[in-house]
Here is the input.
Amino acid sequence: MIVSVFVRRLKEGRTFEEFLAEWEADRGFGVPTRVFNAPSIDDPRDVITIGFVTSRWRSSRPAWPRSPRRRACATTGSTR
Here is the structure.
């Protein structure tokens, strides 16, 4: 299993709901994946994303470069 953790900060004026709408994948990763997104309790502009990939890296590797989630999301600034 591969686990990914990302922390992002939403741009000023953007909402968590907008982030979710833009981050919704048009198609999957090509491997079984579960992704959870949540805003911070302390500052709702900070968003954490945790992803679980339940495939062997060798078999999933060709799907990663084509993943629509690899492109930058317009609602986020740089990651910290």
